């Protein structure tokens, strides 16, 4: 079995197991539905009829991106901890799969399964807008907005949600994660130094600004770390996507190296 096939096998197993979790679907759909309802007549459903399709679906992506990743991170937080609690970690480590590939497979499978209901939310929103506005291209914009605006933030959240509970415990991580989410995504820097409005804001202000050609909320807000708050454009959007993905992969990479050294030391 090659390294790639091992990685794919672990990813498929992890995807199937994670996708069966009712809590994943309930939390995602409940958060998304409630947040849409809370918008009242200010939500993307009430954008003018002549609003460009890119702006319509990007607005939906930003709206879902404000709250849905909270449930995403909460669900993933106990994934590796659960292996220890159920005493299956030792069994998994005995398999002829390196700890790095095992962790990477869990990450990729868990990310894909946890992102699936988020993707379906965007498809539902795209279908609704396609029917109400009479423009089938809105479904395509829904897919693009998910991939460009939401997915990099989910990649970012998944890396920390999977690995950090191994050190902090899942309950403590969840508490800290909620605090970080509101501090690092919605708290203006004029109140407290924050990552809000930087290239590292997972809500996706910079990619959203690039898609619509307009300044989106939480992109380039004034504050500290000015080098992370450039004017929104294509380069800034690409930089934001790459930074979010790289920072999301970083904890997985570090954890894989540590677990690999532990296995070699044990042997």
From TrEMBL:
- Alphabetic keyword roster: Membrane, Transmembrane, Transmembrane helix
Any transmembrane segments, and where? Answer: 23-40, 60-77, 107-126, 138-157, 162-183, 235-259
The organism's place on the tree of life at top rank: Bacteria
Q: Does the keyword Membrane apply?
A: yes
Name of this chain's protein: ABC transporter permease
Organism, as annotated: Plantactinospora sonchi
């Amino acid at each position: 079995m090659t390294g790639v096939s091992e990685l794919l096998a672990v990813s498929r197993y992890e995807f199937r197991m994670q996708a069966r979790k009712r809590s994943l679907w309930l939390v995602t759909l409940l958060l998304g539905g409630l947040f849409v309802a809370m918008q009242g007549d200010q939500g993307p459903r009430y954008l003018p009829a002549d609003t460009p399709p890119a702006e319509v679906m990007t607005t939906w992506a930003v709206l879902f991106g404000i709250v849905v990743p909270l449930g995403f991170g909460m669900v993933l937080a106990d994934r590796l901890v659960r292996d220890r609690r159920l005493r299956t970690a030792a069994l998994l480590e005995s398999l002829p799969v390196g700890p790095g590939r095992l962790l990477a497979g869990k990450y990729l499978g868990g990310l894909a399964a946890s992102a699936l209901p988020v993707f379906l939310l965007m498809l539902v929103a795209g279908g609704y807008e396609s029917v109400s506005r009479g423009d089938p291209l809105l479904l395509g914009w829904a897919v693009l907005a998910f991939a460009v605006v939401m997915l990099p933030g989910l990649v970012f959240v998944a890396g920390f949600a999977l690995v950090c509970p191994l050190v902090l415990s899942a309950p403590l991580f969840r508490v800290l994660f909620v605090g970080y989410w509101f501090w690092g995504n919605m708290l203006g820097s004029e109140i407290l130094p924050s990552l809000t409005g930087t290239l590292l804001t997972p809500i996706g202000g910079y990619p959203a600004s690039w898609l619509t050609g307009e300044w989106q909320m939480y992109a380039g807000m004034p504050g500290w770390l000015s080098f992370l708050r450039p004017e929104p454009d294509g380069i800034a959007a690409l930089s934001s996507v790459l930074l979010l993905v790289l920072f999301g992969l970083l904890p997985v990479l570090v954890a894989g190296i540590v677990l690999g050294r532990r296995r070699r030391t044990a042997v």
